[in-house]
Every structure is written in structure tokens, then in C-alpha cells.
Amino acid sequence: MEAKLIVGTLEQVEADAVAVVLFEEGEGIPGVKSWLDELRASGEFTGKPGEMSVLHQPQGFKAKRLVVVGGGKADKFDTSALRKAVGTVVRALKQKGVKKLAWMLAGGSAAASAEAAVEGAILGNYEPDMHKPSTEAKPLEVFDLVAAAKSPELEQAFQRGVILAESQNFTRDLANEPANKLTPQVLAERAAAMAHEYRLDCEVLDQDRMRQLGMGSLLGVAQGSDAAPALIVIRYQPANPTKPGDHLALIGKGVTFDSGGISIKPAEHMDQMKYDMCGGAAVIGAMRAIAQLKPPVAVTAFIPAVENMLNGRAQRPGDIVKSLSGKTIEVLNTDAEGRLILNDAITYAKKLGCTHLVDAATLTGAIVVALGHVNTGVFTNNDALLGRVMNAAKSEGEKMWHMPLDEDYKELLKSTFADLANIGGRWGGAISAAWFLKEFAEDTPWVHLDIAGTAYLDDAKPFMAKGPTGVAVRTFANLALSWA
Ligand code: BES
Ligand code: ZN
Ligand code: ZN
Question: Which of 6, 224, 398, 407 is the right S-S partner for 393, CB 3.0 to 4.6 Å?
């Protein structure tokens, strides 16, 4: 889809449809007042979020259709609501043969609105149809964002929105590939191709290299699969870093399929475990955005990529592995594999000199029990880094909730036979999983995002297709961009 920022008026803009937001207690539109009055009087349109009405061949307008979309209460209509409103209209209209949509940006709009609006359009236009040639989805071809006047600031924000949303869709494309198509090696190839396209440095550590280094924890998970593991490392170096000593690591869980291993999962919904690489995919998508938006801080991405399977060489419950950190781990449940691959990536990031660590992982079912599909669970050992991540998430409209990590939880991970057990019992499962990672982050500032509940949608939303959401891509990019 081609996305442009243009200057124009509601009456003059040419498109298959022109859309405008109306609020619950808002004004109408001068030229079509009677139509709107009737809609409001009949109760067909009250202005609630997500409501929509379409007038064909509106008198005095160049566009073929005039679309009004509810914005709810005007004072609650933030950039997050705008992103969703645009996505909702795009998803509704693309099913109706609309190829070119114009969206009226409210008068005197802030740059942040231009960014959110174009993001909503690009995200809403996305369909997971790469393996469905007979697709019924007909994407929009042109999205014009119509402003009253242009400024360099507005143009820059618009372009940033395009890059962020396209990178988020890149992540969704990776995550949508089923596990037979996207093995750890293929994920590494896709990451390397992206890095090459955007002039980033990419290195892929293979099994031999990881064995030499001593990544026994990661390799323990990988040994149950015929698919070879990979540790993908992507580097971005700014021309003029604002704080030359700072080096941000983005770490993403890349389990291309999680069967549970010998502690095998139930059959129901096991197909969804093709999404267990959404953290890794988010990190790769964020690097794609970072390469183009050029933040002032060095960023290195680490994606430990494995398949958690069960063959004759698979790791067993009770096995003890030695991690890169030197700590030994008793593997009491082979399904708690995310923390087993992430700890080696965290230690490796520290060894390479990273000063700030942020990871994203579909780590626990327990976080879904705690927060549902609304908020990502956030854990940290450092309030300053937490503040940065939460601010980034807020300005990108990605909901996140700070979870506790008190010392009292530490004893859950005690093992008689090794330094740590890889599970902490039934209660507070997302917290014991985070505590496990914290044992490896140690004193290095670290934030962990448990995205198990937010990385994919079980059903489509009005503004987004079913499947991977690409959560954390915008937050990661924003975090780097606002580093200063
Ligand atoms: N990949 C899963 C977590 C998950 C669950 C992601 C649901 C998305 C939706 C993870 O590897 C896992 O299996 N965790 C176990 C940990 C347990 C064995 C301590 C879990 O959450 O049940
Ligand atoms: Zn698992
Ligand atoms: Zn998993």
C-alpha cells in the first residue's frame, strides 16, 4: 500500500472513500447535516468508538463515499484510539472494494496523530494470507492522510509511522510462518537478509560455536530437535551516540515451535506454539525500524532460536545443564524452555559489553492468567530502565503492567542438585520465570517483557487480523529513539 501525507479539504479530496471522526457529543459536517442528523436521531450512529456509517455519492464532495467513524468522547480520543479507528475503517472498507482511502486529520493535529493514523492504516491493511492464494482479503492500494497544512515535523512523524508499522508487519510476517516453513535456520536467514537490506551487521552463531562458548543451557533445549539451533546477533552502531558508554541489548525468545519437549503439551491449541518466536521476531522487526530511524544509542539484538521437540536425544526432566554463566540448572520441566535459551543469550549480551538489557518472550501461560490478553507483563531489576520502557510503551499505545519481583520469590527456584531449578511451582509462575532470568542479568539493568498474552490474537479485532500482533516492535524502537 502506498501511504502519503497530503494537504486538502474534506470536500475536495479525491478517493473511493474519505473518512472523518465524529464524537459522541460532537458537531456534524456542514454539507451533509441532514444525513447525520437522521443517523443520530435514528440511533444508527451515536459516535461510540468503532461505529461507522457510509454515505454513497455525497453531494458536494469529490470522494465516492463519505465515511463517519465514531471516536467516543472527544476528551478521551488519544493517539491509541485514533490508531484503532483508522485500522477499523481500513479493515471494514477493504472488504467492500475500496482501493483508495483518504483520512481527514483533525485541524491543527499534532505530529503524533499523523504517526498513529498511518500506523493504524498499515497495521489494519495487513492480512496473514501468504499461504492462501485464494484469499478473499483485498488490501487497500492507497492511503492518503489529509492535513490542513504540512510541516516538516508532521512529515517526519508520518514517515516514522510508516517505518514503525511496516516493521511491525515484518515481524507479523515472520511470526505467521508455520514451524515447518520457519526453522531456526530459516529465521536466521530472514534476519540476515533484513540486516543486509538495511546495512546492519549480522552474525549467526551455529551449534559448534555455541558449544565452544559453553552455552549448555540453550543447547540442552535444541538437542531434542533435528533442526539446528542458531543464535542470531544483529548490530546497529550510531554515527554520533549521545551517551557513548551505553549499549542497549534487545533479546527475543525464538522458539520456532514449542511442543513442550518430553514434558509434552496437551494437543489442544498446540498449533499456537508456532508463535513461540514472537519475542525474537519483535526484536528483528525493531532492528529493521532502528536501522532506518537511526537512534543515538548502540543497539545489539540477540535472538536465541531453537525448536523444542522430543527425539531420542531430547533432554529429560531431571537433566542438569551448565549455562554460559557457569551456573548449573536442573531441568525439572522441559516445557520451561524459554528461560533456558534466554539465560545464555543474556549472559552473552553482557559478555559483549551491553550495559542495558531488554528482553521480550512468550514466556509463561501464567502471565495470561494474570493479565489476560490486554497488558504485557513487565519485570525489572532497575527502576530507571523500567521508566524508560514504560514511557516508550505508553507513547506507542502498547499496554504494559509492572509486575513484582521481590526477594521473597527467589526461594521458589531452589534445587537440591544444581544452582537453580528451571521451574518454580504452580503459583506466581510468571514471576518465578522472571526471577530465573534475573539470576543471569544480575546487576546489569534489565527489563523483561512477558508477551505470552499479547503477542497474538486468538480472533481478529476490528482493527487487526487474527494471529501475531507484532507487540513490542514500536516500544523497542521508541526506547532506542528516545535514549538521549
Ligand atoms: N511457550 C510457553 C508459554 C506460553 C503459554 C506462551 C501460552 C503462549 C501461550 C512456555 O515455554 C511454557 O510452556 N511455559 C510453561 C512453564 C511451566 C512449565 C513452568 C507454562 O507456562 O505452562
Ligand atoms: Zn514451553
Ligand atoms: Zn515456550
Answer: 398
pLDDT in tens, 291-324: 999 999 999 999 999 999 999 999 999 999 999 9
Of the candidates 62, 73, 235, 265, the residue annotated as catalytic is: 265
pLDDT of residue 27: 75
Q: How far is the CA of 338 from the centre of ligand 2 (A)?
A: 6
pLDDT tens digit string along 253-263? 999 999 999 99
355: its cell numbers? 550495559
Closest ligand 1 atom, residue 255 Cα:
1
- Cell readout for 234 is 544483529
Burial class (CB in 10 A: 0-12, 13-18, 19+), 131: exposed
**Look-up of cell digits 485541524:** 107
* Structure-block grid coordinates of residue 424: 518454580
CB neighbour list of residue 160: distance below 8 Å, 6 or more residues apart: 115, 293
Which residue, among 343, 347, 302, has the nearest Cα to 220 in the 3D structure?
Answer: 343
The predicted structure's pLDDT at residue 210:
98
Residues of the chain with pLDDT under 70: 108
C-beta of 450 in contact with ligand 1 (< 6 A)? no
* Residue of 364, 432, 437, 458 to mutate, ligand 1, most atoms within 8 A of C-beta: 364
For residue 343, the SS3 value is helix
How far is residue 141's CA from residue 135's CA, in Å, rounded to a whole number? 16
2 φ, ψ (degrees, to nearest 5): -90, 125
* Atom of ligand 1 lying closest to residue 276 CA: 1
Q: What are phi and psi of 446, to 5 degrees?
A: -145, 140
Gap between the terminal Cα atoms of the chain: 33
Assess whether 265 carries a catalytic annotation.
yes
For residue 37, the model assigns a pLDDT of 86
Q: Is 338 in the pocket of ligand 1 (CB under 6 A)?
A: yes
Q: Please work out whether the CB of residue 337 comes within 6 Å of at least one atom of ligand 1.
A: yes
| E strand or H helix that includes residue 89 | helix 79-93
Residue with cell 520457519: 182
| Cβ within 8 Å of residue 274, ≥6 positions away | 177, 178, 179, 182, 256, 257
Give yes or no: 474 in active site. Answer: no
The active-site residue, picked from 339, 350, 438, 474, is 339
Average pLDDT, the chain: 96
